[in-house]
Amino acid sequence: MTNMEIALAGGASFLGPRLASELLSRGHRLTLLATRDPAVVRRRLLGRLALLGYPPQSVLDMSDQLDAVYVDPQAPHLGMGRGAYEALADRFDVVWHCPASPDFHQGCDFAGGVPAKGAHALLPLAASGERPTVFHQVSTVFAHGAQPPGTVRESGAARTSGNCRNRHERAHADADRYVHSYAADTGARAVVHRTGLLVTDMADQPELPRHGLAQIAAVAGRLLSTAEGGERLSLSLGVPGDPEARLNLLPVVAAARTMAQVTERAHEPGPQLMHVVHPRDTPISRITAAFEHLFPLRLLLRPTGSAHLPVDVRGIPQGLDAVLPYLRQRLSFDTGALDSLGVRVRAPRVTTEYLVRGMKGAAMQSAVPEGGPHVGVLSASV
């Protein structure tokens, strides 16, 4: 495979550094699209590669293939003159957009962590160059919204926003729909990657963004702490859910490796949606077991329709309430698009021990939210 010129927006997201390292280690040249001082953004990414465990010589070698350029996603032509914009567009074979959650990664993402804003800014860049540039948008399988149990197909899935259950799902669904419409109307090459929930078993580090389950563990750590910040409250917590539910959890390193392989494949004009998911779903019982290992907590999943759950938490912190629908999910995801490219997701099994390792550092937080933890009753109809 000939080495490519690749642009990356969202290098500070949870996925960003892992995807950057995969692309760089394969010999491709990478340009970070930076919304602040390019030298600082470039230096920060190299520092994160070191934190991810790459030896100094490997980081040095990758630095030779890494560039950064300042862009303003809110301005015409990304804040540069038309000539400079056209030269930038002509430079790339591939443009990657890795939006981060604005809730979890404040101030560190391209276009403020709003997926549609990034897509609006970057698709014209990918489509206006002389090369047949391919645009890649990172999304999530949760963008499918609420679905009945069964297999979710890739075909046509990005055309509608579905029955979205929270703003995270809606934000990605809106962006996916825009990418699909733009590529269908213009013939631009555009690929939407709907991934499983990205996770890692790497120990928590303040300099690296956390994945979603670690963020939830941090919230739980604060919620269950006593006012002294030492001992934890012991709770038996009843929540509406299905003990047979399952989620698709995907180690982020496997996701980055798979996406790098997809980058090197040829893509036809027009939109394409593909599921980048673990071959095996993770039972919800395995996830609850990890939380019970980390906290003096017993999670009881009760069917929707129970009159009232025996113990629950009133005033669930923002973000934590959005988790409740996934405690009932039973979905599988078609992978025909990946199969057609000859690409397979190869990922380790996500065990309880894997999850504990990746959440333990975040769970050790002991700061108490203002007013302290509050135990009450939450209707089972949530």
TrEMBL record:
Pfam families: NAD_binding_4. SUPFAM superfamilies: NAD(P)-binding Rossmann-fold domains. Residues 145-165 are annotated as: Disordered. Residues 8-256 form the Thioester reductase (TE) domain. InterPro entries: FAR_NAD-bd, NAD(P)-bd_dom_sf. This is SDR family oxidoreductase. It comes from Streptomyces durmitorensis.
